[in-house]
Design brief:
The complex is a heterodimer of chains A (86) and B (618). By secondary structure, chain A is an alpha+beta fold. Chain A has 3 helices and 5 strands; from the N terminus they run E-H-H-E-E-H-E-E. Chain B is of the alpha/beta class. Helix content of chain B is 20%, strand content 27%. In chain B, the strands form 6 sheets. In chain B, strands 11, 12, 13, 14, 15, 16, 17 and 18 form an 8-stranded mixed β-sheet that branches. In chain B, strand 3 and strand 4 form a beta hairpin. Classes of the chains: A alpha+beta (86), B alpha/beta (618).
Chain lengths: 86, 618
């Protein structure tokens, strides 16, 4: 079981929001559910992007990131890096 | 902004479409905003535009008004700006005109945004660090809220792939919703390949100087005067004080460390009431301040005039030549005396030049897309500030409402302001058309004031210096639709992923084409060093000038390359008509690590539509 230290906030980018009836939050939950083991979903999901595009941010382990990156419905998975004011 | 807009000929009397301008909403993704600033009062503003779907969720004690119509925060406890950065950028893009603004009397004038009648929505993502997941959340909201232009003066310190960069992703979805994003190029110059904003749908902005340069003087001995760089608001009344070198006022450091005025090296008893000279910039000022020195003169090793910090004591930074003159004086007299004068401004006839610190291309992710795209004022800009924030990084106790700052952060909102100004005349123009109008009307820049041995040319300043007056009437624009960008993505990425990004069933064409043919307002090709080459750019332009017009191509030839444009004349019969053309560039022998630059200008007798062409080697 991964500890909180093993986890890093990562962005799972899913592209555009699908047309028609779609529930982004439940889709994000279901994707996350497929890769996490033994942790509560609510504690891992940091943000859901659902107004203008599709994706979410979650606390993930390296292994979970790799699994997500291989999913057909995922465009990219990358760590939530620190940006600087310029 | 008390000088930057006037410097570009964009004065207070410029022709404006005030009614449309007041319908434009600028989304500022930054460190929040100071809502009580005079730059954001709503006197004379009506209610928010009807299409505005945003909200004022700025947190405790945060109130919006008819100027500042929206606020959200994703970090800290409110959208209130604790650092001053977001207040500065927001007021540069769209702040009200505020008379007699100054920083302790320096840079005095009317501080104003590019579009003073426009509305502002603030999205706070930095406090002070900015996390990618918060930046994406801000884009998600800003796009849906209905902003027209997004300005984001934030960046990674390096260039990330477009699918791995929150700003590239957010700006792509902004673009598909008709919103242009302006982004700062970064402050990691002057090394090559340091620009951190690769996406073609973003307007990436380099920082340039304006003709008002703030300097300060050090007077020593029998009236010897040298000029330094800092924003020094302190006055020593012209009185001379003892000068000491760091190495002579330390009791517990090596001579070298003491000379650098490293942390903990200066002896408070020995520096009190004196001006201390230090052989280094970074650590020296806080140490001199902490030790209680009266003032400090430090070495600006990089010869960088654009590094002009606000310091917590009377202090300045000298170029090595001037610093050594002062050191010679110190070594030649038993009781060296001197003083530092309050900053003053001088006119710089060489302006604009690209700031030393401004990040440079080439684009490491999409080598055929020149980045940065354009230059805008980003050196010594006075704009609104948070009175709660410290005015320098050195635990300065002073607080101000307007402050002078430098960075590509300051350039970016200038470009956003101009983009909004163009949109106020052409509300139906696409983000690409607005971007094209800014790029093709830019003033040509040259390398004369840049220093040797640093990256110059288009990879420093892009298409040139932003020119707001001309930008509203570009004559021709290089259009690019979402489909054009998708086609470009198809050349680099897996089709399934591109389909997810596009959100429709658009498939990548079997013949994927070349990124050289992406309809960009500038042209670049990376070729093998010293080998013969022949590259062809396919472009199309849309007539937005006069219905019946004819444009002739002019090429500014470089002896190292041969360029052909086919056809050489484009004749239009109506507005919005599109015409295609090809540019072929052939040559050989471009040495490793160098570039050949030239430009194509379409001219119809009144509109000059200029595109740089760069052939470079890795």
């Amino acid at each position: 079981k991964a500890t909180s230290e093993d986890r890093e906030v990562s962005i799972v980018y899913l592209g555009s929001l699908p047309h028609g009836v779609y529930s982004p939050l439940s889709h994000h939950h279901s994707i996350l559910q497929r890769v996490i083991q033994g942790s509560s979903l609510e504690s891992l999901l940091v943000r859901s992007y659902k107004r203008s595009f599709n994706g979410f941010a979650a606390k993930l382990t390296d292994q979970e990131r790799e699994k997500l990156a291989n999913m057909k419905e995922v465009v990219s998975v990358f760590p939530s890096r620190t940006y600087q004011l310029q | 902004t008390t000088r930057s807009w006037d410097f570009m000929g964009f004065d207070e009397k410029i022709n404006r479409n005030a009614t449309v301008e007041s319908d434009i909403i600028i989304g500022v993704i930054d460190s929040g905003i100071w809502p009580e600033s005079e730059s954001f009062t709503d006197v004379g503003f009506g209610p928010a535009p009807k299409r505005w779907k945003g909200a004022c969720k700025g947190g405790k004690n945060f109130t919006c008004n008819n100027k500042l119509i929206g606020a959200r925060y994703y970090t800290a406890e409110s959208a209130r700006d604790g650092t001053g950065h977001g207040t500065h950028t927001a007021s540069t893009a769209a702040g009200n005109g505020v008379k007699d603004a100054s920083f302790y009397g320096l840079a005095q004038g009317t501080a104003r945004g590019g579009v003073p009648s426009a509305r502002i929505a603030a999205y706070k993502v930095c406090a002070p660090t900015c996390m990618a997941h918060n930046i994406l959340a801000a884009f998600d909201d800003a796009i849906n809220d209905g902003v027209d232009i997004i300005t984001i003066s934030i960046g990674l310190g390096f260039m990330a792939d477009v699918y791995g960069d929150a700003i590239s992703i957010g700006a792509f979805h902004a673009m598909e919703n008709g919103i242009l994003t302006t982004n700062s190029a970064g402050n990691n110059g002057p090394s090559d390949g340091t620009v951190s904003s690769p996406a073609p749908w973003i307007l990436t902005v380099a920082a340039s100087s304006i003709d008002r340069r703030i300097i300060d003087k050090v007077v020593f001995g029998i009236g010897t005067t040298v000029v330094g760089n800092s924003v020094n608001s302190f006055t020593l009344n012209g009185t001379s004080f003892p000068l000491v070198h760091g190495k002579d006022v330390s009791s517990n450091c090596t001579e070298e460390d003491a000379g650098y005025c490293k942390e903990g090296c200066l002896d408070s008893q020995l520096v009190k009431g004196k001006i201390v000279l230090c052989d280094r910039y970074t650590s020296a000022i806080p140490e001199a301040y902490k030790a209680g020195a009266l003032g400090s003169v430090v070495l600006n090793f990089y010869n960088d005039d654009d590094l002009s910090l606000i310091l917590p004591l009377a202090a300045t930074a000298l170029h090595p030549k001037e610093y050594s003159v002062m050191m010679s004086y110190m070594n030649s007299t038993r009781d060296p005396q001197g003083t530092i004068l309050k900053s003053e401004y001088i006119k710089d006839p060489a302006a604009p030049h690209v700031a030393f610190f401004s990040s440079r291309g080439p684009n490491l992710i999409l080598p055929e897309i020149i980045k940065p795209d354009i230059s805008a004022p980003g050196v010594q800009i006075l704009a609104a500030y948070s009175p709660d924030a410290s005015i320098s990084e050195f635990e300065d106790k002073r607080h101000v409402k307007y402050k002078i700052m430098s960075g590509t952060s300051m350039a970016c909102p200038h470009a956003a302001g101009v983009a909004a100004y163009v949109k106020s005349f052409h509300p139906d123009w696409s983000p690409a058309a607005i971007k094209s109008s800014l790029m093709t009307t830019a003033w040509p820049m040259n390398d004369t004031s840049t220093k040797s041995n640093i990256s110059t040319g288009e990879f420093a300043y892009g298409s040139g210096h932003i020119n707001p007056v001309k930008a509203i009437n570009p004559g021709l624009v290089y259009e690019a639709s979402k489909e054009d960008y998708i086609r470009l993505l198809c050349m680099k990425y897996d089709e399934g992923k591109v389909r997810l990004v596009s959100g429709d069933n658009s498939t990548c064409p079997t013949d994927k084409g070349s990124p050289l043919d992406h309809n960009y307002p500038s042209m670049a090709a990376k070729v093998a060093p010293m080998n013969p080459f022949a590259v062809k750019f396919h472009r199309r332009v849309k007539n937005v000038g006069l219905a019946n017009s004819s444009y002739k191509a002019t090429i500014f030839q470089d002896s190292k390359v041969e360029i052909k444009v086919v056809p050489e004349i484009l004749s239009f019969k109506s507005l919005n008509e599109e015409k295609a053309f090809d540019v072929t560039v052939a040559g050989s022998g471009v040495p490793f690590g160098s570039q050949v630059s030239t430009q194509l200008v379409w001219f119809d007798g009144s509109h000059s539509v200029r595109s740089p062409i760069v052939v470079y080697t890795a």
